[in-house]
């Protein structure tokens, strides 16, 4: 039975971290909200399921994943569920827990990147909070990106793979998450990343290996990979990238 992924159809967003795991594993899945209404799919189907009053364990918001009778929400939680099923986390408990820890840290990066363009309220447009966004983005550029990326570099330096993987000796969803993080930061803050990427050579090399891996390369070249845009989690506003 195919996994059913529920997420907004026009953005990468938080759902992209899950798509990358499914794609890297060659898993059979349906991206439900991107499907046609005539096929019993689409955003309406996602919203009806999410708001079904009969659900014992309802999700707060997309993304969520349906695996038979199991419904799982929250990106890092979904990845923790998929990790052992897709072979994308170590089999030992310490390695599995650390992979989940890294996924949660990556979720923190994504949230902070989002808050550079929505620092006051998600319900307000970017144009309604531009002064605050400029101040928040400067702090993110000058301090937070380096702290996060320096941490991932440290993890790669300390790991047993010689810097090839974040955890253990094989690809995990944490590696895929770091790939997506770098992709997003390059889109949102290209000047900042161009200036600073030399400080994180192992992380950049990991990104490049993931991008070149056959299944991910095929996915990135396919229409399944939605382009970054200014309705997304990572957004490029040039005035916020005054590196």
Question: What report would you give on this structure?
Answer:
With 243 residues, the protein is of the alpha+beta class. It folds into two domains: 3-86, 3-Layer(aba) Sandwich (Glutaredoxin), CATH 3.40.30; 93-213, Glutathione S-transferase Yfyf (Class Pi), Chain A, domain 2 (Up-down Bundle). The chain contains nine helices and four strands; from the N terminus they run E-H-E-H-E-E-H-H-H-H-H-H-H. It has helices spanning 15-24, 43-50, 75-86, 93-117, 130-158, 173-188, 190-196, 201-212, 214-220; strands spanning 3-6, 29-31, 64-67, 70-73. The protein has a four-stranded mixed sheet with strand order 2-1-3-4, with helices on one face. Helix 4 runs antiparallel to helix 5 and helix 6 packs across helix 8 (201-212). The longest helix has 29 residues, at 130-158.
Q: Quick one: how many beta strands?
A: 4
Strand order of the largest sheet: 2-1-3-4
Main pleated-sheet profile: 4 strands, mixed
Estimate the mean pLDDT confidence: 97
Helical residues, percent: 40-55%
Report the radius of gyration as a whole number of Å. 18 Å
**Which residues sit in consecutive blocks of at least 5 with pLDDT less than 50?**
none
CATH topology of the largest domain: Glutathione S-transferase Yfyf (Class Pi), Chain A, domain 2
Number of helices: 9
What structural class is derived from the secondary structure elements?
alpha+beta
Beta-strand content bin: 5-15%
Our measurement of the CA-to-CA distance between the termini, rounded to an integer number of angstroms, reads 48 Å
Summarize the helix and strand pattern as letters: EHEHEEHHHHHHH
Q: Which CATH class of the largest domain applies here?
A: Mainly Alpha
- Shape descriptor reads globular
Q: What is the domain total for the residues?
A: 2
The appropriate CATH architecture of the largest domain is Up-down Bundle
């Amino acid at each position: 039975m195919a996994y059913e992924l529920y997420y907004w159809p026009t953005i990468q967003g938080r759902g992209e971290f899950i798509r990358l795991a499914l794609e890297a594993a060659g898993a059979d899945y349906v991206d439900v909200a991107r499907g046609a209404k005539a096929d019993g799919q689409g955003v309406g189907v996602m919203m009806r399921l999410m708001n079904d009053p009969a659900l014992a364990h309802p999700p707060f918001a997309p993304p969520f994943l349906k695996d038979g009778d199991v419904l799982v929400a929250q990106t890092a939680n979904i990845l923790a569920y998929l990790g052992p099923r897709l072979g994308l986390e170590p089999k030992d408990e310490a390695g599995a827990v650390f992979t989940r820890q890294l996924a949660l840290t990556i979720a923190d990066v994504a949230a902070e990147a989002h808050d550079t363009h929505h620092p006051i309220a998600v319900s307000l447009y970017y144009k309604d909070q531009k002064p605050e966004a400029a101040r928040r983005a400067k702090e993110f550029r000058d301090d937070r990106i380096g702290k996060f990326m320096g941490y991932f570099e440290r993890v790669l330096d300390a790991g047993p793979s010689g810097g090839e993987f974040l955890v253990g000796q094989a690809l995990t969803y944490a590696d895929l998450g770091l790939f997506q993080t770098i992709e997003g930061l390059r889109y949102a803050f290209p000047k900042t990343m161009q200036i600073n990427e030399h400080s994180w050579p192992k992380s950049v090399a990991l990104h490049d290996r993931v991008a070149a891996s056959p299944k991910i390369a095929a996915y990135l070249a396919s229409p399944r990979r939605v382009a970054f845009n200014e309705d997304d989690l990572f957004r490029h506003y040039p005035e916020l990238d005054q590196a």
